[in-house]
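To the wet lab folks,

You asked to see what we're planning to order before we commit. Fair enough. Below is the target structure as tokens, and below that is the sequence we designed to fit it. If anything looks off to you, flag it before the synthesis order goes out.
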């Protein structure tokens, strides 16, 4: 990602990823790692990403409809008021709801307690083609269970390895796992809880347990530290997001999700029929007036498809080679190749557009001839 591109000076997947030696004690929850802009810049960038993220999600959904195996799972963890619900509302509202599978995990039910702790998680996994969102997750079984002493140490201790194996199986089967931990400071959490008490329309969010949980703040920080150390893997790394600025956490998660889906190289499924042949069959049952309307819409339809094409919009997301943002020669060569691919694809689409217009013009004339002949035979 180019310097200063969209406010990012560093790819948030690098800036926020847990690395060996990560210390939650030293983590600044009010920082904006990798981002040099202001709140207005972050909100504008998130909005700009919306169209691209929607395009990518639709491609993933289409892939799943024809037998594709890939999906994305976003695990969102954090203490109360960290902004988990806001991430879901603001980030996922930018894509088609039918392509999102949201699950919120509270305390396990009696039935769930009778099974392995991953049983209820397996039942909520996103199907191929979907973006899954877990508001809390299987990590509650090494966080709450640990801090509240709900199971013996030897039980929750072995769950770290079980979780790693479970997530490795998910990735191997085609699910990309993105894990976001929203880390709010104790002072900021206190302010947000007070805000809930002040507002009658927000008091329903408050629980007596919120105060009790704050009394175990240090224990929760230790539990999260263990989670990061023991379950941030090459196949499913943790991204720890400073959450004192809600706009930053939303911007960062939007960017990570968008960049990840770009890297999936999602394309539109190729039909097993010829659009020109199907157009001929469809036109037989259309009036000349309807066909003329379709003809007038042709240019707008195709140009919209070009504009919305994720391959074209990669110019907005990837490094701008023409601006000289990258000094590394291999990276510059890769970006030039991308631009060349975009231009070639656009040329191919425009050539098909010309053939389509010619075909539709002919179909309009044929329909008019049928209609004239029909009136003449009456």
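Sequence we intend to order:
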């Amino acid at each position: 990602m180019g310097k200063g591109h969209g406010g990012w000076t560093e790819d948030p997947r690098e800036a926020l990823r847990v690395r060996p030696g990560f210390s939650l004690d030293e983590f600044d929850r009010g920082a904006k790692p990798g981002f040099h802009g202001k709140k207005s810049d972050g909100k504008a960038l998130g909005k700009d990403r919306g169209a691209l993220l929607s395009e990518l999600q639709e491609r993933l959904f289409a892939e799943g409809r024809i037998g594709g195996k890939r999906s994305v799972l976003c695990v969102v963890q954090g203490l109360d008021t960290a902004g988990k619900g806001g991430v879901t509302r603001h980030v996922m509202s930018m894509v088609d709801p039918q392509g999102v599978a949201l699950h919120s995990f509270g305390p396990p039910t009696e039935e769930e307690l009778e099974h392995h702790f991953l049983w209820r998680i397996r039942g909520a996994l996103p199907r191929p083609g979907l973006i899954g969102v877990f508001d809390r997750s299987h990590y509650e079984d090494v966080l709450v269970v640990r801090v509240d002493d709900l199971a013996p140490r030897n039980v929750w201790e072995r769950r770290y390895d079980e979780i790693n194996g479970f997530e490795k199986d998910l990735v191997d089967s085609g699910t990309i796992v993105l894990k976001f931990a929203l880390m709010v400071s104790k002072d900021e959490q206190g302010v947000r809880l007070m805000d809930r008490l002040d507002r009658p329309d927000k008091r329903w969010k408050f629980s007596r347990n919120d105060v009790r949980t704050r009394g175990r703040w240090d224990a929760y920080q230790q539990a999260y530290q263990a989670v990061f150390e023991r379950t941030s893997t090459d196949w499913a790394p943790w991204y720890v997001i400073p959450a004192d600025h809600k706009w930053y956490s939303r911007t960062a998660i939007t960017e990570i999700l968008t960049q990840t889906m770009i890297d999936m190289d999602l394309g539109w499924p190729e039909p097993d029929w010829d659009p020109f042949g199907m157009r001929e069959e469809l036109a037989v049952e259309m009036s000349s007036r309807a066909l003329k309307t379709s003809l007038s819409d042709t240019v707008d339809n195709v140009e919209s498809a070009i504009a919305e094409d994720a391959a074209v919009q990669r110019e907005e997301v990837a490094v701008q080679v023409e601006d000289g943002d990258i000094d590394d020669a291999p990276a510059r060569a890769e970006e030039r190749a991308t631009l060349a691919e975009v231009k070639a694809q656009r040329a191919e689409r425009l050539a098909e557009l010309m053939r389509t217009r010619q075909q539709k013009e002919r179909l309009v004339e044929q329909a008019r001839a049928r209609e004239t002949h029909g009136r003449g035979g009456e």
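Structural context that might help your review: Confidence is low (pLDDT under 50) at residues 319-326. Residues 275-376 form one domain.

Thanks,
Computational group
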